Amino acid sequence: MKNKFVVGNFALKVRKSFAGKGLFTLGFIPKGSCILEYTGKMVEEKDHYKDTKYLFWTDKKTMIDGNVPSNIARFINHSCRPNCEADGPKGRVYIISTKVIKPSEELTYDYGREYFNKHIKPKGCRCIKCKSKLS
Ligand SMILES: C[S@@+](CC[C@H](N)C(=O)[O-])C[C@H]1O[C@@H](n2cnc3c(N)ncnc32)[C@H](O)[C@@H]1O
Ligand SMILES: [Zn+2]
Predict the structure, then answer these.
(1) Which residues line ligand 1 (CB under 6 A)?
(2) d(C-alpha 59, C-alpha 13), whole Å
(3) What's the 3-state SS for the chain?
(4) C-alpha to C-alpha distance for 97 and 115, rounded to whole angstroms
(5) How far, in Å, CA of 124 to CA of 135, rounded?
(6) What pLDDT digit, counting tens, does each position of 11-41 carry?
(7) I want to staple 64 with a disulfide (CB 3.0 to 4.6 A). Which of 40, 43, 92, 113 is the partner?
(8) Domain regions of the chain by residue span
(9) With bands split at pLDDT 50, 70 and 90, how would you rate the model's confidence at 1?
(10) How far is the CA of 89 from the centre of ligand 1 (A)?
(11) What is the spatial distance between Cα 106 and Cα 18, in angstroms, rounded to a whole number?
(12) 8: left (phi over 0), alpha (psi -120 to 50) or beta
């Protein structure tokens, strides 16, 4: 199947979502599962790296440029009512389920206030929670 990936124990699929592409699960994901890692090139603030939507800050000075083809975690969208969180030991970011996620559901996590204010808020958040507030 096109855009289908098996990562560890989970079959995932990249497809169109509420904000461009998104990452979906094809099977059940138990709560507390480490689903995949957000990978890419480690870069430092002092390198004056161009700010793109795929930069993930790991601390005040260091970030991961996730804009690499192997990093399918880059397609996970932000939600104000997420089903995952991004966490990990220093310099690494893992996507972990915070709920049971059912087949065909989209994976989401909260991007955090800084990213939200810079990249999401200006155009409006399109997550399920914010959309339901509008209707
Ligand atoms: C890491 S990318 C996620 C994948 C992206 N949808 C794509 O197709 O490449 C983050 C970008 O997706 C969009 N995005 C993610 N979550 C969103 C949301 N809840 N509301 C609006 N745009 C969102 C924004 O353009 C954001 O800068
Ligand atoms: Zn929202």
Answers:
(1) 19-22, 53-54, 74-75, 77-79, 119-120, 125-127
(2) 29
(3) CCCEEEECCEEEEEEEECCEEEEEECCCECCCCEEEEECCEEEEHHHCCCCCCCEEECCCCEEEECCCCCCHHHHCEECCCCCEEEECCCCCEEEEECCCECCCCECEECCCHHHHHHHHCCCCCCCHHHHHHHC
(4) 20
(5) 14
(6) 999 999 999 999 999 999 999 999 999 999 9
(7) 40
(8) 4-134
(9) low
(10) 25
(11) 10
(12) left
Q: Which ligand has the shortest distance to the CA of 74? A: 1
pTM, to two decimals:
0.94
Structural contact between residues 24 and 104, judged by C-beta atoms closer than 8 angstroms: yes
Q: In this structure, which amino acid lies at residue 28?
A: F
Query: Regarding the domain delimited by 4-134, which CATH topology (the fold level of the hierarchy) does it fall under?
Result: Beta-clip-like (2.170.270)
Amino acid 59 reads: D
